[in-house]
TrEMBL record:
Lineage of source species: Bacteria, Pseudomonadati, Pseudomonadota, Gammaproteobacteria, Vibrionales
Keywords annotated in UniProt: Cell cycle, Cell division, Coiled coil, Cytoplasm, Septation
Family designation: Belongs to the ZapB family.
Organism: Photobacterium angustum
Name this protein carries in UniProt: Cell division protein ZapB
Subunit architecture: Homodimer. The ends of the coiled-coil dimer bind to each other, forming polymers. Interacts with FtsZ.
Gene: zapB
Residue stretches in coiled coil: 6-75
Function: Non-essential, abundant cell division factor that is required for proper Z-ring formation. It is recruited early to the divisome by direct interaction with FtsZ, stimulating Z-ring assembly and thereby promoting cell division earlier in the cell cycle. Its recruitment to the Z-ring requires functional FtsA or ZipA.
Gene3D superfamilies: 1.20.5.340
InterPro entries: Cell_div_ZapB
GO cellular component terms listed in the entry, alphabetical order: cytoplasm
Pfam families: ZapB
Subcellular location, record wording: Cytoplasm
Length: 80
């Protein structure tokens, strides 16, 4: 093998190593982003669940108030 071919091979190997290093850094960054997004998604799901629970409670309270108002109106009709 000639010295020139050996140098070309060495350059290609070095380029491959550099490319692998860059790709590994990108993978690490993407893993970190994925982790952050997963945590954010979990927080959003939790927040949505809390809002759904609060909404259901408010609906129940609203229905209870409507029933009380109906009862009071019914009593008022009997008074007249």
């Amino acid at each position: 093998m000639s010295l020139e071919m050996l140098e070309q091979l060495e350059a290609k190997v070095q380029m491959a190593i550099d490319t692998i290093s860059i790709l590994q850094m990108e993978i690490d960054e993407l893993k970190e982003q994925n982790s952050q997004l997963s945590m954010e998604a979990q927080e959003l799901r939790s927040g949505r669940e809390n809002l759904n629970e609060e909404n259901e409670k408010l609906r129940q309270d609203h229905n209870a108030w409507q029933e009380r108002v109906r009862n009071l109106l019914g009593k008022m009709e009997h008074v007249e």
